[in-house]
Amino acid sequence: MEWTGARYADKPTVEVGTWIDAPPERVWALVSDVTLMPGMSGELRSVAWLDGADGPAVGARFVGHSGHEALGAWSTTSHVIECEPGRVFAWAVQDPANPSAIWRFRLRPENGGTALSEWMQLGPGRSGLSAAIDRMPDKEQKIVFVRLREFERNIASTLGHIKKRAEA
């Protein structure tokens, strides 16, 4: 059977989880503070809340500045779409009705600590990846596959940083 892989329009996703020996409240304080994320991410350089917001709430917005050796530097505005303290924190990148990506942390108490997962979805709105696909449409599935694997590695690294901080 020939491997076909996902296309961008399929809104492909990736999710990574970990268990943290700390209560959900401590983990929540870390995952919901977007200004901490640049110190835990390989691509995110800086983050700032917008419109006078100083923390997560549905409808709050923040700007993130990122960089990648193959994709260059870019900035995006994200919109908080889910915020249940101690349980879930999610944001849509760019247009919440047609996001270029959606990111979500889920927390749940487990074995005296916290089960934490980070999930992301590419698309359906256009992103920096769309330009690469436009240039090489015959390589779309490979481009999507490679980018999802990068996200998977980056998420695993971010979760490792969160775990280390929460357990300290």
TrEMBL record:
Tell me which Gene3D superfamilies the record gives: 3.30.530.20
Pfam hit, one: Polyketide_cyc2
Q: How is this protein named in the record?
A: Cyclase
